[in-house]
Amino acid sequence: MKIHGPADKVLLPAGFRFSFATAGIKASGKPDLALADAPAGACAAATFTLNRMAAAPVLAGKEHLKTGRGRLRAVIINSGNANCATGAPGLRAAKDTCAALARALKINPSSVLPSSTGIIGVPLPVNKILSAIPRLVAGLAQGEQALRSFGKAIMTTDLTPKLASASFKTRAGTVSIAGVAKGSGMIHPNMATMLVYIFCDIAAAPAALRRQLKAAVEVSFNAISVDGDTSTNDTVLLLASGASGVKLTIPGVAAQFARALRAVCASLAEQVVRDGEGAGHLVRLRVEGARSSAEARRVARAIANSPLVKTSWAGCDPNWGRLFSTLGNTGIPVDPARVRISIGPHRVFDKGKVKAFDRAAAHAVLKRPEYVITVGLGLAKASAEFLTCDLTEEYIRINAEYST
Amino acid sequence: MKIHGPADKVLLPAGFRFSFATAGIKASGKPDLALADAPAGACAAATFTLNRMAAAPVLAGKEHLKTGRGRLRAVIINSGNANCATGAPGLRAAKDTCAALARALKINPSSVLPSSTGIIGVPLPVNKILSAIPRLVAGLAQGEQALRSFGKAIMTTDLTPKLASASFKTRAGTVSIAGVAKGSGMIHPNMATMLVYIFCDIAAAPAALRRQLKAAVEVSFNAISVDGDTSTNDTVLLLASGASGVKLTIPGVAAQFARALRAVCASLAEQVVRDGEGAGHLVRLRVEGARSSAEARRVARAIANSPLVKTSWAGCDPNWGRLFSTLGNTGIPVDPARVRISIGPHRVFDKGKVKAFDRAAAHAVLKRPEYVITVGLGLAKASAEFLTCDLTEEYIRINAEYST
């Protein structure tokens, strides 16, 4: 299996077309509409935000996946407006967008998934989108460049486009997976959403795709945090064209696909954290000795969301007492006499005992752009890896900017 | 009932003596030991941190209150070292401190409550404390000045001393309550603890004091947040000398006492938030329409701990969508169609509908040093008020400083 990053050639799945347009939703005049379509028979799975204030496009997308029984032909994304807290008119705007696109593509409205990202609580300028749909559809094209442009049109304050692809060979042919993402914790005023679109050419039923996506998301997008806020619009979509002719049900293929999908998701998730607003360090938290990997992730998330811990990382400060204190607030029955903490290779706390560690060496680890912090809970044998970043003055500067 | 702040004359409860000393725990050479004592028969109640990594003095203090059945004669506090993550030697250090003080005061070791605040994971220099105890005891004195010096010796990075007092008249005499606090979210490297000592001269049994303290803490110290981190050392102590001769059991007195205690706690809690590290604005969150006041506080706490919301306050930005999004992550079944949000007097979201509000006027509210944000959940009739502050670049600067 090969895994390619943003700088590499895209391992392009067959069967998809991509397009983008500038509808004038963003004040900056940058592209703010993106479209992808898939051939008849394409199937999809998606995971959506758990935020109860879910935006209108999330509600519409869920409904369409349900009524269409996982058959999906197109996804349309606008940036610059979240279409959230917009009530019944917002839902109508999302549906009108799908209906207009469906007419243009001669497909069923329920086979369109809409996404939005941007400011909350401002009516979606839906007429700008409707006017742009003809040229958006006219621009649909295959190929690497079309996918890259699609990926750029969904960016908001991301500093870099996020792209990963993988392919693997089977007896029945080659399968490719390519995904693009826009960042979460790209928390420019009003823009806090993570959107991910993963395209693949395997032939698979929606239920099998859902299982595959759920497993991959759990250890990738659900194992990162920039600032602990879950947006109203988060969406991860997996769309399968079937164009490779390789069926997921062929023995051995599901395991290969799972590995490749996980690698694509992990790469995109890491790219999102690396590009976190103001982030100075990528921190790999390894939590070991938990009773379940979900518990390990819960502990990691608590550490990753502590302002005190995150600011100590910004200062390259081996002040592990803050992390120790955070462990005590997780609701998990941690016992200091079983806990171990390491900064890079330096054990600083060992089962109730402070280790006389080399502060200068630990400080040197924390000055690196990327490092590992290991926490052993000593409860059982489950573990998890979690990616996060520090909390810097730059984050505050960006997010305290006035929104208008 | 009168309530006096830090600049007013202290309404001093009878029966207490106070002292302070410089033991050399703090590198700065500032006072780092404080002592208060009470006459025989004094009773106490305390609430401690819920952090499972509770420091040694918290463990020792809980044990002493239990074995002494709430009879307490003295409290000794050191700043500069938290005596946390210090294992068995740390617990021994806390107990040795109590034993030495008990010998000097000719009282039972279990009638001493120890407190510590400072860096986690560094052995407590207990010999420095033991050496200082004789001069600490020799310095015990009554009066307002002695209490003020006690209050200053427990400060770490607090910019201002925190002090509040109240008194009320009964047919049996006058009762006075005076409390001092050091800040939480005074989160200088390693110093994240809130310590509160409240002295009163009512005559009351420990169980009654516990009920009084619990009720007052719930709506004061449990209704504030600076950065969402719960320290390993948090302690709120209520110590009653009985020297007023007024019994809490006299009809009507318990209600008067509850009002006065609540006022003292509320004043101290507000002083703590006002002095939060880097805080530029004091935000009064009013959450209404909840199913219980605990639920209202839970919602308020989620808002108060969102970095996205806190940075928008730092920027005086009426970007209420961030707050709206936070509501969706509380786990409470909020329905956008019932939610109301106001910035000061300006309703910005009303039951599913965005209000066309005056952005300039809302911005002007948010530029004030202190303002109210009201959130109506529309679920039922319970409410809560919660105090918090913004998240500024100054907070990051202070907390990213290298700890050594």
| Overall pLDDT score of chain A | 92
User: What percent of the residues of chain A sit in helical stretches (DSSP H or I)?
Assistant: 25-40%
Largest sheet of chain A, order of strands side by side?
Answer: 10-17-12-16-13-14-15
- CATH architecture term of the largest domain in chain A: 4-Layer Sandwich
Number of helices of chain A: 11
Topology order of chain A in helix (H) and strand (E) letters: EEEEHEHEHHEEEHEEHEHHHEEEHEEH
CATH superfamily of the largest domain in chain A: L-amino peptidase D-ALA esterase/amidase
- The CATH topology name of the largest domain in chain A reads L-amino peptidase D-ALA esterase/amidase
Rounded Rg of chain A: 22 Å
Q: Mind explaining what this structure looks like?
A:
The structure is a homodimer of 404-residue chains. Chain A has 404 residues and is an alpha+beta fold. Chain A folds into 2 domains: 2-274, L-amino peptidase D-ALA esterase/amidase, CATH 3.60.70; 282-399, ArgJ beta chain, C-terminal domain (Ubiquitin-like (UB roll)). Chain A has helices at residues 56-67, 87-105, 126-138, 144-153, 206-218, 253-274, 293-304, 307-314, 321-327, 359-367, 393-399, and strands spanning 2-4, 17-21, 33-37, 43-48, 74-81, 112-119, 162-170, 173-182, 195-200, 224-225, 235-240, 282-290, 340-343, 346-350, 353-354, 370-376, 382-389. The first copy, chain A, has a 7-stranded mixed beta sheet with strand order 10-17-12-16-13-14-15. A 6-stranded mixed beta sheet of chain A has the order 1-7-8-9-11-4, sandwiched between helices. Chain A has a 4-stranded mixed beta sheet with strand order 2-3-5-6, with helices on both faces. In chain A, strand 5 (74-81), helix 2 and strand 6 (112-119) form a beta-alpha-beta unit. In chain A, helix 1 crosses helix 2, helix 2 runs parallel beside helix 3 (126-138) and helix 5 (206-218) crosses helix 6. The first copy, chain A, is globular. The termini of chain A are far apart. Mean pLDDT of chain A is 92; it is low at 186-191. The interface between A and B is large, with 71 and 71 residues.
